[in-house]
Amino acid sequence: MTSPSSATVTAILLGGARPIADPLATAAGVPVKPLVPVAGEPMINRPARALLAHPAIAQVVILTQNPEYFADDPATAWLASDPRVRFERGGKGIASSLLGVMEKADLPFPLLMTTADHVLLDAGMLDQFVAQATGADIAVAMVERTTLLARYPQSRRTWLKFRDGWWSGANIFWFGSTRARPVIALWQDVEQDRKKGWKILSAFGPLALVGALLRILTLRGGIARVGRRFGLTARLVAMDQAEACIDADKPDDIVLIESILAR
Description:
Number of strands: 10
Keywords: Magnesium, Nucleotidyltransferase, Transferase
Protein name: GTP:adenosylcobinamide-phosphate guanylyltransferase
InterPro entries: MobA-like_NTP_Trfase, Nucleotide-diphossugar_trans
Pfam families: NTP_transf_3 (PF12804)
Helix content: 25-40%
GO molecular function: nucleotidyltransferase activity
Oligomer: single chain
């Protein structure tokens, strides 16, 4: 594994709620989605443990609007008492909350951000991502469709098509320095349209939009080009593990995740 020689990475674990009620949380009778049980425990526990167990991670910051939900739940109270875990109160949007966290001087870069519903996050994914993202100002983990469908043909994702394949997000992001702030600010502007790939691309300029529509751009090249526009190094990390893009977003996802964990 190629990674930092000591624990230097600050992990941001998104544990908040969207403005509208989450159907999984409503069905489970819990106040927020990260407390929805998956394989017998709240989903946030598994990615939190994976992060804390990894040698590159110095601390885990849980970004949420309601830290008390986790402290008050017996199954997640351990997060509030772990010395390497801290809670930061987030706002309505991921990007604005992340920008707020970045302002704190005691949260050093690099930052690795992932989500509470990334239940299958494990050491292998973190090994690959940290190794390949180190040195970049921004890196994003993605899974190419053939990687996922070779193992889980029943899994349905949101795909973006480029010349080098169909890609789906793996909910792992890297912010290597303060130079990432302008891109996050742009993300804040288009956050409400994150499922509409063309709208996100258009925010990065007409060349990116036309290139994607005509299938003349590779995703790797497109991400690097966006980075150059902002004067920084931006990188795609194409994840080897199909499980990297399976998150607990729908009831069918939970069924699949629990079958994977059972194996």
